[in-house]
Amino acid sequence: MTSEFTDDRSADPRPEARNPKSEIRNTPRRRRDQFEFSERKKIRNGSRPARAFGFFCPFSSLRDLFRISNFEFRICAPRGFAFRIFSAGIRRGGVLADYFGMAIALVLLLVIFGLWARNFFTLTTFRTIANQIPDTTIAAVGMTFVLILAGIDLSVGSVLALSSAALGIALVNWGLPLALAVPACLLVGLACGGANGLIIIRWRLPSFIVTLGMLEAARGAAYWVTQSRTIYVGGPVEVITETTILGLSLPFLLAILIVVAGQLVLSRTVFGRYLIAIGTNEEAVRLSGIDPRPYKLAVFVLSGLLAAVAATIQTARMSSANPNTATGFELQVIAAVVIGGTSLMGGRGSVVRSFFGVLIIAVLGAGLAQVGVRDEYKRLITGCVIVAAVILDQYRHRLGRASPTG
Question: Domain 92-402: which topology?
Answer without folding.
Answer: ABC transporter involved in vitamin B12 uptake, BtuC (1.10.3470)
